[in-house]
Recover the amino acids of this structure.
């Protein structure tokens, strides 16, 4: 592609976030010195398949680094694994207008971090409420890394993943802020591990959705490693007032899979081997063995 073509692709991918992200600044994940103890890493998502795979994680303690996400810190095994990196993306962890049910949920998360007695970096987008997070996460062992960059806002289907990968490497474009597993894997790649194994990467949330046949309301049963909710109306975080439509859900789902393919190509170009070790997963881009 010509340089003009790359510029057009960059604009298409980032058009709504460009000026805002440049003003906010934040840590450049590509140049940041990410903690690294071992050459190999396990990235842990919170998909329900993780229940079957916990023993595979604990068997590798002392031989690999761990990257975890979201509410995994509330599980007792978190303190056994002692991850060096943890990732948050969802605005309900910091937004003032978060729904009450999610405020209660995040307080449990914050409390779980008080027991961290090892060095841990928590990665959060620069667009978060930094003051609130610093007040809520008051532990000398934890460093908050507020990362910047220009996140992909939507992905035109005709732009090749190889183009997006090139832009990730050469510009301040960063993956979409859609799914926390995207960033856990992306940060592991940027850390420079030789081998990255992924667990709990079900990415089957769209299969948990249904449409009310009388009202057309989108319903979902939120299913994670740490639990499953009853069937409830699908609402947008953090307020949980605006409804999701099936079109929006499928669009985000497609963009999420697209992002994983881009990250896989990025890892491949760096001679990093990623394998999906989840006992169940719908991600087909990462080799299974």
């Amino acid at each position: 592609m010509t340089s003009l073509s790359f510029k057009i692709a960059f604009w298409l991918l980032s058009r709504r976030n460009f000026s805002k992200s440049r003003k906010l600044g934040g840590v450049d994940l590509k140049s940041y010195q990410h903690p690294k103890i071992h050459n190999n890493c396990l990235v842990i998502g919170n998909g329900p398949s993780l229940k079957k795979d916990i023993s595979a994680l604990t068997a590798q303690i002392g031989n690999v680094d761990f990257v975890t996400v979201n509410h995994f810190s509330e599980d007792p095994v978190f303190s056994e694994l002692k991850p060096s990196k943890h990732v948050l993306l969802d605005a309900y962890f910091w937004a003032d207008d978060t729904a009450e049910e999610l405020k209660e949920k995040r307080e449990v998360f914050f409390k779980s971090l008080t027991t961290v007695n090892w060095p841990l970096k928590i990665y959060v987008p620069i667009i978060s409420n930094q003051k609130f997070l610093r007040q809520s996460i008051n532990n000398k062992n934890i460093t908050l890394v507020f990362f910047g960059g220009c996140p992909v806002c939507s992905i035109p289907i005709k732009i090749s993943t190889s183009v997006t990968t090139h832009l990730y490497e050469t510009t301040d474009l960063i993956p979409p802020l859609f799914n926390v597993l995207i960033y856990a894997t992306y940060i592991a790649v940027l850390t420079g591990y030789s081998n990255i194994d992924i667990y709990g990467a079900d990415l089957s949330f769209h299969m948990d959705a249904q449409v009310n046949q009388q009202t057309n309301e989108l319903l979902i049963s939120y299913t994670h490693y740490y639990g499953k909710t009853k069937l409830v109306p699908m609402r947008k975080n953090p307020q949980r007032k605006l409804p999701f439509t099936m079109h929006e859900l499928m669009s985000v789902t497609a963009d999420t899979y697209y992002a994983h393919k881009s990250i896989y190509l990025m890892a491949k170009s760096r001679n990093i081997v990623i394998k999906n070790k989840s006992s169940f997963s719908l991600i087909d881009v990462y080799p299974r063995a």
In short: The chain has one domain: 3-202+253-276.
